[in-house]
Specification:
Largest sheet: 7 strands, mixed
Number of helices: 0
Number of strands: 11
Strand content: over 45%
Structural class: mainly beta
Order of helices and strands: EEEEEEEEEEE
């Protein structure tokens, strides 16, 4: 079965850090561009970061540049999103998918195969 499973979210104080994981089963992550997305309550889904297949080039939406780092572990078939200096506006559900739309806001129903996601709450 082909699927992506997100994990690693939680409650963190402003300025704190979390590392999210996106683990694949049924296919190799390094064969695909992998994107991280987030959705705050009442908002559209937003492309946050991307790691390209092959050369592993990375990109980030402006609001997370310098704070978030995307990486890939081929042996673990997992893509990570290291999130530092977290802000309350980073709160939301975080999702990964085998495509990228960095900096783009869109309706979640445009893609049919989202996983459960992992929730991030940044609050004091």
């Amino acid at each position: 079965q082909v699927q992506l499973v997100e994990s690693g979210g939680g409650l963190v104080q402003p300025g704190g850090s979390l590392r999210l994981s996106c683990t694949a089963s049924g296919f190799r992550l390094d064969y695909y561009d992998i994107g991280w997305f987030r959705q705050a309550p009442g908002k559209e889904r937003e492309g946050v970061s991307c790691i390209r297949s092959g050369n592993g080039d990375t990109s980030y939406t402006d609001s997370v540049k310098g704070r978030f780092t995307i990486s890939r572990d081929n042996a673990e078939n997992t893509v990570y999103l290291q999130m530092n200096s977290l802000k309350p506006e980073d709160t939301g559900g975080y999702f990964c998918a085998p495509f990228c739309r960095v900096g783009i806001h869109f309706e979640a129903h445009e893609y049919d195969y989202w996983g459960q996601g992992t929730q991030v709450l940044v609050s004091s």
